[in-house]
Design goal:
Layout (H helix, E strand, L loop, with lengths): L1 E10 L6 H17 L4 E3 L17 H16 L7 E10 L2 E10 L2 E7 L11 H4 L10 E4 L2 H7 L3 E4 L3 E5 L1 E7 L17 H7 L4 E6 L8 H13 L4 E7 L15 E4 L2 E5 L8 E10 L5 H7 L7 E7 L2 E2 L17 H20 L3 E5 L4 H22 L3 H11 L10 H8 E7 L5 H14 L2 E6 L1 H15 L12 H29 L6 E3 L5 H6 L20 H14 L5 H6 L17 H5 L3 H13 L4 H11 L6 H17 L35 H13 L9 H8 L22
Parallel strand pairs: 1-2, 1-11, 2-3, 8-15, 9-10, 10-11, 17-18, 17-20, 18-19
Antiparallel strand pairs: 1-14, 1-16, 3-4, 4-5, 6-7, 8-9, 11-12, 12-13
Helix pairs in contact: 8-9, 8-16, 9-10, 9-11, 9-12, 9-16, 20-21, 21-22
Catalytic activity: deamido-NAD(+) + L-glutamine + ATP + H2O = L-glutamate + AMP + diphosphate + NAD(+) + H(+)
InterPro entries: C-N_Hydrolase, C-N_Hydrolase_sf, Gln-dep_NAD_synthase, NAD/GMP_synthase, NAD_synthase, Rossmann-like_a/b/a_fold
GO molecular function, one term: glutaminase activity
């Protein structure tokens, strides 16, 4: 039995901030050494930060990375510890995403990434080339200054593994193992399978998987499955939190997996910049007959000798790390902690002094308030646990003096968080009261203002210019007048929000500026149920890719677990924009305005994006899923209605506020969901095909019984309208 102590880490790196990144890297090495580890694995592209994007095309970025690596190698950082550092490397005419293995002030090997992430949030092929030469390792000529400083001219470069006394090590460089693309570990013929046959036992996975609701289980199970059948262990390091990208937050949860068991696991969400995960493991590879047979005819993979003993002999005094129960957060906790950490990182790095939120008293803006409240609680908790970096940031942002610092989340919220209820003649007393009560629970500096005067002034100006004054539909006006009057209110709220964010700090003799928070959800974005340049337009939006259904579950959870009891009343209230007059026989409701329910929107969104369905494919799918309750004609009408308004409003996605990425069917056009924004909203060809199918199916009657649906889909048909196929239906199911 051979014993090996390894360390991996969650690092909160920041794209292009080399000082910040080096500080975190050095601290992680110090902690790994203190724990007695002989291997330290860092995240993908940890020296530059993953999110440099087009900065990777600049020679400065690559040169700065080499300078930082030289600094690490000229010091004692790699003495007696095998360190893997992530950085870009130019070889010949190509730029590669690499892991650089270093030991005792020398570079042992450079491993370029073989499978690049190029879907969803990622565009790695824009910046890097995939390494395609598997046959042998090549000699890489080090840059002159690096070569002179290290007294080392060339290093092995390519696909291979390192061999030290008693242990063989291989790198996997992954971006996102559970997204749409198959990369290294998850390709049809994964490298680790071939390398296991060559005797490799230790896999170092430099990862940086973005957070998405309900994804962690799929991600970890992939690693567990990969190690289970081959009697090996994988060490996983991740970038955590901000990447320099306003849209995504990278998961934490660095972990060490041995023979299918997780023996060490880091936190998924944390305000810490550096978090270490250490485990002592033993080589226990046996002799499975089929494994031996396949190994006897394996393709040979190149290796590099490391003249250093990493393993320790058996000692009873050195205890082994035992399997752990994997820690998962519920989706409600993910909504609280993920965006909460993301907001804190954005706040402390942007130089802002706080946030301002237009608080309507509805579910969406109340969810944002609860997330900010959770952020304040996390900050106070970390300070009480002794985190000096969080304390220093909180003192700076909250403008504490005389040795004071945050000890109460409500007091901290009052220093950094403004909420504003912007009421009008169409606002109800119920929403005003809910906003006031919630602001008091959170501790925000709350304002209650009326926008009627501003709206009236604009209408008077319009009347002076045109001689006409628009009326609401309930007062006899047309649809055009009704929509125009609603948009005026919505846009005035956006203008007022930005004015207050820039001037309220000055009013209260505070330095700096406040960031305006948006509060539109993913379903409203998909349907286009928002006014262009209204309060959905902000600096950042923590709920922009979270569904309405998930937000309502979060509100119920937060009412109990975050201590904001008024959220239960907010969740129970029917969603309404309150942009039209309230009458005894009329009250504006979101789902009536949209012509579809939020549950249906989640279904359309998943089918459109995740299952890549156009109108015809969506119709066919829903005939199976909804066919027990609706006729083909009714389903066809619903599909056509959705695509009509989706395409009419698609232009709104081009100016969508940067939002926290949490949902796989987000329609965000800046990066994730790239599509045209000018459509023929009549979809003549596609809708004609649907009409032909409806006729073939005798579309005016229900054709599928529950028993038929169960036999066809192999699932239980519930009483709701959610799609029950894998991943596309019940929003509470994992996606």
């Amino acid at each position: 039995m051979r014993l090996l102590k390894v360390a991996t880490c969650n690092l909160n790196q920041w794209a292009m901030d080399f000082d910040c990144n080096m500080k975190n890297i050095k601290e992680s090495i110090c902690r790994a050494k203190e724990a007695g580890a002989v291997i330290r694995l860092g995240p993908e592209l940890e020296i530059t930060g993953y999110g440099c994007e087009d900065h990777f095309m600049e020679l400065d970025t690559v040169n700065h990375a080499w300078d930082c690596l030289k600094e690490l190698l000229l010091g004692d950082w790699t003495d007696d510890i095998l360190c893997s550092f992530g950085m870009p490397v130019i070889k010949g005419s190509e730029r590669y995403n690499c892991q650089v293995l270093c030991l005792n002030r020398k570079i042992v090997m450079i491993r370029p990434k073989m499978w690049l992430a190029n879907d969803g949030n990622y565009r790695e092929l824009r910046w890097f080339t995939a390494w395609k030469q598997k046959e042998h390792l090549e000699d890489f000529l080090l840059p002159n200054d690096i070569s002179e400083a290290l007294s080392q001219t060339t290093v092995p470069f390519g696909y291979g593994y390192s061999v030290s006394r008693h242990v063989q090590i291989m790198w996997l460089i992954l971006r996102d193992p559970v997204a749409e693309v198959c990369e290294e570990l998850f390709s049809p013929i994964p490298p680790h399978a071939e390398l296991a046959l060559n005797g490799v036992e230790v896999y170092l996975n430099a990862s940086g998987s973005h957070h998405q609701l309900r994804k962690l289980d799929l991600r970890l199970r992939a690693f567990i499955g990969a190690t289970h059948t081959r009697e090996e262990f994988t060490c996983i390091a991740t970038n955590k939190d901000a990447t320099g990208d306003a849209f995504i937050m990278v998961d934490g949860c660095a972990c060490i997996v041995v023979n299918g068991d997780v023996v060490a696991q880091g936190s998924q969400f944390s305000l810490k910049d550096v978090e270490m995960v250490v485990a002592q493991v033993a080589s226990l590879r046996g002799s499975i007959s089929s494994f031996q047979e396949q190994a006897s005819c394996k393709p040979k993979v190149s290796s590099v000798a490391v003249p250093y003993k990493l393993c320790q002999p058996f000692k009873l005094q050195m205890s082994l790390s035992s399997p752990l129960k994997i820690q998962y957060h519920s989706p409600e906790e993910e909504i609280a902690f993920g965006p909460g950490c993301w907001l804190w990182d954005y706040l402390r790095r942007s130089g802002a002094s706080g946030f301002l939120l237009p608080l309507s008293g509805g579910a969406d803006s109340s969810s944002v308030v609860a997330i900010v409240g959770c952020m304040c609680q996390l900050v106070v908790n970390e300070i009480s646990n002794g985190d000096e970096q969080v304390k220093a940031d909180a003192i700076r942002i909250g403008h504490y003096t005389d040795g004071q610092f945050p000890t109460d989340s409500k007091e901290f919220a009052r220093r950094i968080f403004y909420t504003v209820f912007m009421g009008s003649e169409n606002s109800s007393n119920a929403t005003r009261t809910r906003a006031n009560v919630l602001a008091e629970e959170i501790g925000s500096w709350h304002l209650d203002v009326s926008i009627d005067g501003v709206v009236s002034a604009l209408l008077s100006l319009f009347q002076t210019l045109t001689g006409k004054r628009p009326r609401y539909k309930v007062d006899g006006g047309s649809n055009i007048e009704n929509l125009g009057l609603q948009n005026i209110q919505a846009r005035m709220r956006m203008v007022l929000a930005f004015m207050l964010a820039s001037l309220l700090p000055w009013v209260h003799s505070k330095p700096g500026f406040y960031l305006v928070l948006g509060s539109s959800n993913v379903d409203e974005g998909l349907r286009g149920y928002l006014t262009k340049y209204d309060c959905s337009s902000a600096d950042i939006n923590p709920i922009g890719s979270i569904s309405k259904q998930d937000l309502r579950r979060f509100l119920r959870w937060a009412a109990v677990h975050l201590g904001y009891s008024s959220l239960a009343e907010v969740e129970a209230a029917p969603p309404t924009a309150e942009l039209e007059p309230i009458r005894s026989d009329y009250s504006q409701l979101d789902e009536v305005d949209m012509g579809m329910t939020y549950e249906e929107l989640s279904v359309y969104g998943r089918l459109r994006k995740i299952f890549r369905c156009g109108p015809v494919s969506m119709f066919k799918n829903l005939c199976y899923k909804w066919g027990t309750k609706l006729t083909p004609s009714e389903i066809g009408d619903k599909v056509k209605y959705f695509f009509k308004y989706y395409s009419i409003n698609r232009h709104k996605m081009t100016v969508l506020t940067p939002s926290y990425h949490a949902e796989s069917y987000s329609p965000e056009d800046n990066r994730f969901d790239l599509r045209q924004f000018l459509y023929n909203a009549r979809w003549p060809y596609q809708f004609r095909k649907i009409d032909e199918l409806v006729q073939q199916l005798d579309g005016d009657r229900v054709a599928i019984t529950k028993s038929t649906a169960q036999e066809t889909a192999g699932v239980t048909v519930d009483g709701g309208m959610g799609v029950v196929a894998a991943g596309s239906g019940n929003p509470s199911a994992g996606v």
